[in-house]
């Protein structure tokens, strides 16, 4: 199931309700008193099974009386609806295990290239518009 998991939506008005968004199948909406523990466990497993070992499980936060509007049902699947995940601006980036900041990584790479002699070429061209940064956290340090 972890390979088909696309994201999780949590109800910010209710500390138990959540929706597991699944590809090509109906979503799973349920309540759990251990929601935080379950989500933290799924995030680590998702990260371990991601293609490049650096993909976060998208976690979305919605304030609502119910998350039913964000649950893809069997009927939705029959209609060809692929997802009912919230829009990207609802993404809870503080839930990410891997923090992306490509600007810093590119600057570090650029500084490293500058340390090489002026006669050698690194073969790397950094375009201003593509600068962003990558900071990783060690999931083994998580308690």
Large-scale geometry: globular
**Percent helix:** 10-25%
Helical/strand content category: alpha+beta
Number of domains: 2
- First-to-last CA distance: 25 Å
Q: SSE order in H/E notation?
A: EEEHEHEHE
Q: Strand fraction band? A: 15-25%
Please count the helical segments: 3
Major sheet summary line: 4 strands, mixed
Low-confidence stretches: 116-143
Q: Determine Rg (CA atoms, Å).
A: 20 Å
Question: For the largest beta sheet, what order do the strands appear in spatially?
Answer: 3-2-1-4
Give average pLDDT, whole number.
79
Number of separate strands: 6
Structure characteristics:
single chain; 143 residues; alpha+beta; 2 domains; 4-stranded mixed β-sheet; two-stranded antiparallel sheet; 3 helices; 6 strands; 19% strand; globular; disordered C terminus
């Amino acid at each position: 199931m972890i390979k088909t998991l696309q994201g999780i939506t949590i109800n910010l008005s209710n500390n138990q309700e959540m929706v597991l968004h699944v590809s090509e199948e109906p979503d799973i909406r349920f309540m759990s008193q251990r929601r935080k523990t379950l989500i933290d466990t799924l995030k680590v497993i998702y990260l371990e099974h991601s293609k490049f070992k650096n993909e976060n499980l998208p976690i979305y936060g919605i304030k609502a009386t119910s998350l039913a509007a964000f649950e893809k049902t069997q009927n939705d699947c029959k209609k060809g609806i692929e997802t009912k995940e919230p829009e990207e601006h609802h993404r809870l980036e503080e839930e990410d295990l891997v923090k992306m900041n490509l600007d810093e990584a590119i600057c570090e790479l650029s500084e490293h290239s500058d340390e090489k002699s002026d006669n050698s070429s690194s073969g790397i061209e950094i375009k201003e518009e593509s600068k962003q940064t990558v900071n990783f956290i060690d999931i083994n340090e998580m308690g």
